[in-house]
Amino acid sequence: MKLTFTHPIAVAALLLSFSQGILAKSSLEEIELVTDSYTFEEISALELSGSASSRMESNSSTSCDLSHKSESTKQEIFQRASKKLLNVNNFENIITLPGQDFVLHDANGYKVYRSAKLGDLIQIKLPMDPTLRSYWVKIEEIVQIPNQLKIIVRPTANPNLSKKKGVTDHFFTNAATNTFSVTNTGQNLVARVHGLNEEVNSAQARTWADAAANATIATMAWGFYRDGKAVMGLQSYTWKSLTEHLANCE
Length: 250
Description:
Layout: H1 8-25, H2 40-48, E1 58-65, H3 71-86, H4 91-95, E2 101-105, E3 121-125, E4 135-145, E5 148-155, E6 177-184, E7 188-196, H5 208-222, E8 223-226, E9 229-232, H6 234-246
Antiparallel strand pairs: 1-7, 2-3, 3-4, 4-5, 5-6, 6-7, 8-9
């Protein structure tokens, strides 16, 4: 049975309630959200002041030790991590949050079953999202050098919906980017996800209901407090799971 929620306040309340339940079951209490520019207190102050659209910067990084490996083994491990990063369709098996999904599409919106390429789109489903929406990003840059692979994505419009100028089907605006990278430093294999300019999508939303829901979804992504203690947001949990899987030197 398909449920449809049309009232933005109901959507926001349900999103926050579901997200808190998921995080509690995942034993994520007391884990601090990793931000480069804002503390939890500053995030809360922005929300209370109605300025939750202010720019955020997030980061998740994991590394493993390569120092005792041979040069050929270091390259094999790096190449293996690179293939994993390009295999977007497998992200859901790495992150293992029920209901979270990543599906690779070509530039025309057709599902593809291959490694990611420049111009591809990624369709994202969030766990327990009662709005039943998909969130879309576009791969706008892929940089491959001998010891680093870097992929940059930016929020974009759903290619399967009617085209509407200025629409971004994501809870962040298209000013935001996420940079995914794996790097062989010679001593370590480093996997990182770095988010920049993460602004709540209100002006670029497809409908006013989507705009209202985006503020709550962004809060879920960044993190919040429970009983006076910091709780990691879904974004940090998601990217931490991914980087831990990529940075595997065994």
